[in-house]
Design goal:
- It is built from 1 helix and 5 strands.
- The longest helix is centred in the C-terminal third of the chain and has 7 residues, at 74-80.
- Strand 2 and strand 3 (28-40) form a beta hairpin.
- The chain is 8% helix and 62% strand.
- It has 84 residues and is mainly beta.
- It has one domain (2-80).
- Strands 1-2-3-4-5 form a 5-stranded antiparallel sheet, with no helix packed on it.
């Protein structure tokens, strides 16, 4: 979920269930959640920094994470794909 704070600054939060498959060991289940502060440029690009918490079985690890991306609409995507 993302919420705008200003025209350029957004706050994004997330929660994901995670399954880790290990080749020579037991599988692990867990979750990850966190919050990011994102800065959006008019071009559609964004960058951000946030805090993430991951838990797999009994292992718990908080960490800082960085994000880089580009935001576009589906209309822009289909405009780039030529169906002819």
């Amino acid at each position: 979920m993302a919420a705008p704070l200003t025209e350029h600054w957004w706050l994004r939060s997330y929660f994901d269930r995670v399954r880790l498959q290990v080749a020579d060991g037991p599988n692990a289940w867990g979750h990850t959640y966190g919050t990011d502060a994102l800065y959006h440029w008019a071009s559609g690009a964004y960058a951000g920094v946030g805090i993430n918490h991951t838990r797999m079985n009994v292992q718990r690890n908080p960490m800082v994470r960085g994000s880089l991306g580009y935001r576009f609409t589906l209309r822009e995507l289909f405009h780039l794909i030529n169906f002819n």
